Fold these 2 entries.
Entry 1:
Amino acid sequence: MTYTSLNYLLFVAACLLVYGICPKKFRWGVLLCASLGFYAIVCLKYISFILLTGFTTYGGGIWLGRYITKSDAYVKSQKGKWSKEEKSAYKDKATRNKKLIVAAILLLNFGILAFLKYYNFFADSLNVILKHFGGTLPKLGLFLPLGISFYTFQSMGYIIDIYRKKVTPEKNPLKLLLFVSFFPQIVQGPIAFYNDLSGQLYEGKDPTFENFKQGILLITWGFFKKLIIADRLVAAVNIVAPDYQKYSGTLILMTALIYALQLYADFSGGIDISRGVAQLFGINMAENFKRPYFSRDISEYWHRWHITLGAWLREYLFYPIAMSKLFQNFSKKLKKRFGMKAAKVVPVSIASLITFLVVGVWHGANWKYVAFGFWNGGIIMISTLLADNFKSWKAKLHIKDTNKGFILFQMIRTFFIVLVGYYFDIANDFTSAMKMMWRSVTDVKISEFLSAATYKMLTVSKREFLLVALAGIALFVVSVLQERSKFTLRERICKKGYIVECLVFMVLFWSVVVFGVYGPGTSPADFYYMQF
Amino acid sequence: MVWKKRLPKLLAFGIVMLLMLQLVTFLLVKNDTATECHVRGFYREPDNTLDVAVIGCSEMYADYSPPLAYKYCGFTSYNLCTSGMPPCFYKSALKEFCKTQDPQVVVFEVNGFFYNEEFGLTEVNRRNWLDNIHLSKDWFDDVLDTAEPDELLDYLLPINKYHDNWQRPYGQYKRLKSISKLYTENGVSLMKSFGTRTTNNSRIHTTKKRALRLTDFGRENLLDLMDYCKEQGMENVLFIRSPHRQKLASATSAELEKVISEAGYTFIDCDKISKDIGIDDAADYYNEDHMNVFGNEKFTKYLGEYIVENYDLKTDHDEETKKLWKECEDYTVDAFKVLKERTLTNEDLPYYETTDLGEETHEQLLKAEANARKKLAERQKQNGKAAPKAPDGGKPAK
């Protein structure tokens, strides 16, 4: 049961009906049953993993919460009795213990994720060395349970928030399990913070007609992106990249460009479906995309692309690194030797690089993803280090930031930087990615872009390309409209009245019905981010 | 109160969505245009105007022409058949026929009973019938009986299967043009269910490597069909094997004869008597299984005369029906003249009444059609109805 199947829509409709009928205080239970039911239908074999994460997170949260309460109370009870040193020593000890508890929970859950995801990669890498000593690590037939990255990140965020006293531990294990397993987001996010989502999940809001309309519009728009654009292009991406040696640089470049559109349509379409389904239940989930290809620099791109992962990494990885004692000491040393600017910029740049390396590794166990992290982190690092130089160059060249031509140049430049990153994504390995890039630069013929033979090789018919081009234009127009307004396009449509609402919905709906890739003879393409 | 306000809007929305579903389904659902026209054409026939029901596989639209039977013998008939009709759909076809007509004689061509489940119940064969008949409980039962579980959705929502036809706009245009002739121009099918190829040795072969014998699947359905006929009190039921270039083995013929006669019905193996009918194996077929227009004319005459001689047919019809059938007869006679000439040139093109295949180059046929239309228009004018539009403004297309 994929998010784009009729079965899923029927499942959602049934859940919504039961949710609406149920008394408010039991509605979270309906969502929990639906979430576990969905997981069981899709991936019953591995349901124990999500249950394990849910219950260890619950247990860990309670344990940590109790320790915090107890230690805080003890500190309070000793007020006036302890010397400053005694108080500080106890606090240090308590912090150490809290960190140990957090580390234990994180280690267990990230350990499961890391083992399943990276064991074979490390075994392969280590075996290169170990074989010289006569031993090798065995390769294991490991699998990734559905949504493991997403629910692990979300759960561990909750634990860290308890540690930071931003969150009080949830006392009901089943409620926490709902937070971990909420079905519209389980496949590929968005990753939510406990404070943003839990209240909405447990509140049991009444489903409203307004939410229903907007939710349905968002779901249909998600289907439009996924079934008309992404799934129609998926074959074209899969045909060239694995056998790039057989194709010209033009085709490789076209594949990368197609991939940029396909990936965005696939991921953002899936997220729209998730957010739309959540909205039917009155639950507003965080936005995950804000027109990323309109970004003017790579840093902005990462604030617009997979926003919730970026926010998670900033909150729980980047800031802890940048604010760590190690980095603060490093900053102090830099200040002494190279001045204030270096002290500010260099540690932040290094923290960024480390964060992006993690992003790269999170994408998969392969050196190409490490390179992907280096590429993005490296560009951000260089941009941060050279920010002042760029400013002075712009001043010398009399370029204003508001100049439309310059803005367009920045967008195109950023897009191509992103595109280079995509080569690592589509290539089989790092070497292939580099070779593909080289061919894309040295073996491109403009005439091939217009040749029918080129399109034939991509196994997508001319009509399909035309359709995708039209859908792409629609996507672009919608993006421009969204970019220009502080309100979502759905809100604006719903304000226009019944006829406009219905017309927009019908155009979208029937476009999906007629032009979507589904039905017998087609195998529904999995969401790309589902594999992570 | 809010819901009271919203209800009419929601209802209007629901109705528009349903209409859109109907429209999109009509525009995109397609399997085989000729078959679709043959079956849709049946539903265009005025109620209770058909004397004889002819049911079977593709043989019955290639080998038998109802308007010619009317010309020779004076009875009205319709050959409700689809290519590769599985034996389990013979009963369904009979039921469908009897919903709007009250046939005095029912003729079954036995080819479908030679199919085993694997060959007979291919998706194409099933869909030729199920996609084109009207929705009813019988339709639903047939779907449940024959469809794979994972195909159910495709039957209930055909757009799920056929939506990708947007990629074949020319094919869809031709299909819609063909169907529109039935609905907007002709009113009824002028040649009824009819299809041929203009050759005596087609490059298109339809015979698959299969033994022509009564299969278990065929036998089971034949017995069930005969039981049903008896339950319905149908006495005038005739089973025939129409003439084929590939003759039926005598053992199979004898077995069929035995099974059918045991049920009290008649079986004629026309393979045995094709020479008596005047069929020339070299000239009167377009391939192993189907006759061309020459063979069709001979066999139609034979079958028509057999029916008239052996059954007490009452062919009294009102003037309206007679005129309509006269139009059909005239049109078919004209069309056959042209088709015979074309067959002699061995051009090997497909033709069915509403076909659009290559007709632009066949002015003769268009003239014949225009002539028939003219007569039809005159008749309708006399009856005070608006005259139907001729294609291309009444001028032969070039």
Entry 2:
Amino acid sequence: MSGILASMIDGLLVGSVYGLAAMGLSLIWGVMNVINLTHGAMIALGMFGMYLLFGLVTTNAYLLLLPVIAAGLVLGIVVYWMAVHWVIGRSELMSLLSTFAVNMMVIGIGTTLFSTSPYNVNFSLPGITIGAYTFTGNHIAAAVSAVVIALALQLFLYRTRPGKAIRAVADNREAAELMGISSTAVLTIAFGIGIALATASGALVSTMFPFTILSGGAYELKSFVVTVLAGLGKPAGALLAGVLLGLLEGALTPFIAVSWIPLIEFGLFVVVLVALPHGIFGRATA
Amino acid sequence: MILRRPFFWLVLLASALFVFIPLRSNNVLLREDLILVAVAIILASNLNLMIGYTGYVNFGNIIFFGLGGYVGLYLATVRGWNLMLAAVVAGVAVSLFALLFGLAILRLRGAYFALATIGVLEAVQAFVSNFNPWGRATGMYVSFSAYQPLGGAMRALWITYYLIIAVMALSLILSLAIKNSKFGLGLFAIREDEDAAVVLGVNATVYKAIIYSVSAFLPAIAGTLMFYKNGMIDPSIAFELTLSIEAIVMLMLGGQGTVMGAALGGGLYETLRSYLLTSPKLSSFHLVIAGGLLLLVVLFAPGGLIGWLYRLAPRARKVIE
Amino acid sequence: MNSILEVRGVTKRFGGLVAVSDVSFSLAEGEILGLIGPNGAGKTTLFNIVNGVYKADQGTITFSGRDITGHSPDKVVHLGVARTHQIVKPLNDLTLLDNVTVGACFGREYLDLKAARAAAAEVLQQVGLGNRAHMMARSLTIAGKKRLEVARALAAQPKLLLLDEVLAGLNPTEIALMIELVRKIRDSGVSVFMIEHLMQAIMSLSDRIVVLNLGRKLAEGRPDEVVHNPDVVEAYLGFPDIVDKLTRTD
């Protein structure tokens, strides 16, 4: 197996986590047309959440995902009522600014509590070795967890009543209200789920790489790239697009310095936005 | 004509005060405080051209300041050019960059444009961190000899101060002039409803590109002057996203769309910020307070302080622009 | 009489849907041409093609002898074609005067700010909004906003005015006033192309009418000719002989 292939396979694994993060962003964007600029901060909180829980209960870190997701849901509901509910009908600028304001506050408090030192979660699963290359157990477990959570989300959206209500509101809020769906309840839950996905992906990242309170930013950029690649408001495509981004990174990292990656990702972001406004999976509608 | 507008004279008066008060008492500490306020006003009022007048949120606005700093500092120190010439050339260069770049990303609307500007900022920061002639991640330093042409370091500090005040006055006057011009009316139409504006005959593509480019010019010049005065520049301080966002907070706080709002917001916020940063307990809280302020303004007073003033006293609109 | 607008073979597709199919007609200088058809017939799409918001896939648009096919909307206004929108688009945080000044500044004459303001004040008087010139556009009622749309379009000094359902949502008094305004506009030398659903209004105002259905031109002619055309009746009501039953006076 060549080095590039190994790198790409690892990229595929890490990419599933990118996809999970992007699903959170895409869901919120699709349901309420809000670009959640707290996304990066929430990912960071997920990282620290896992760190703190693991400090308390030394068990398989991947089991601790459940409380992190629950906490993320509650946190999302709080943020929704703090900053999002009041700006829903207004211009996009307002929701951009209000969510960014919350982002600043969270990062500010986080920096005070945790400073900008690196942390990590000391939990490792045994890896899988093929030939000369070893695939980190944590990366594999993270990828599997991401896929499981993504599947759970799909089941929720398509097989349960609340899930259908969310899709209805995403499609046409007024019509959904006329059908008796409380859009406020739906928006609250959808936002909560979006944040839960962000914290979950942060928790997974914390088991893979060292992190600081500021690490969320890089993942937020990746989430934006993945979301526009998949097409806005299509969480299902986000997982696949995340994997693609991971593959791309895996293919590039053996050749170029890490600091060029954000540049390339940004370039991709702008190109896709300008040339393919519906993403690589989307279709132009009349 | 702009000379008829009372606000024009207010700007000149305020600028004169900025110059003479610290000069009279040779108060260097006050000068250092005021220069930060002046830079805040420069950033906020030029940002206002994009956000307040045209309705396009330039989240990455600090890029003009940072790039202007790099280009100007490179010309003034490495190439030994005259400071003022270096600053103006930096301004032109960055405006051209903005024009070319703007033509690409200004096709994006609303939030997408805002995100793209953050992306440009991150990308340029990454690029400059790897760019050899500009010192990569270490950046560039100004050696003492570079201050000789201006008569030594002490004199240089005063001269750059005057130049910054001049740029501040120009920024406010430029905002005022555009607001009362046909070009400005076209921008307002774009802000209110871009599609309707085009149907009414406004060439939105050209107008947006022009104002984006214009909004880069004076901040770039200010960048050259400030980093020259500070003696050094590196990618992390030149392209700090937080500063970019703080410029937006200043503008929203003061009242976007008005010239006075940018000035007031810049002045108030910078004073608050200096206080927070120097207080040992509160320094890391400055982000929290800035965020909280922004949230409060967005939720309760999107028109900022001047917007609130206009609601209380509609006649004030004519004088306080 | 000269034709000021010639539409030839215009077709427009959106993905698989053909919104406008091979439509051709002319508008004579100084006439009021009505455009009617059931919902979804392609009327607003046709307007959007004429003033440059959409590009036709096939066909040509000629205005005053000049080919304007594919021109952008701002170029078309400079040449002398102005329009109003079905769903009004007021510039909300500007005053009525500023709204109309935009029209005057960027229209056919491209006036400077001072001259444009003066021209705008006059147009506001003509449409009956003169005493509210310094109010914010957002504070108007729907009838006021419709008048504002017309004022803005007039301020551009057009030779051809496209009115898209300018009567929708108005009460009978407002309708009567607007009808009179449209007549005044035509009498001042501006040709008018108007989409309308209100049958009495379009019948009394139009010199001729074009009927669209499912993107195709169904009929063209004088109002009384068109209303008795069985294809037209079938498109609207479903039963061709209803017209006779409804219009019999015995």
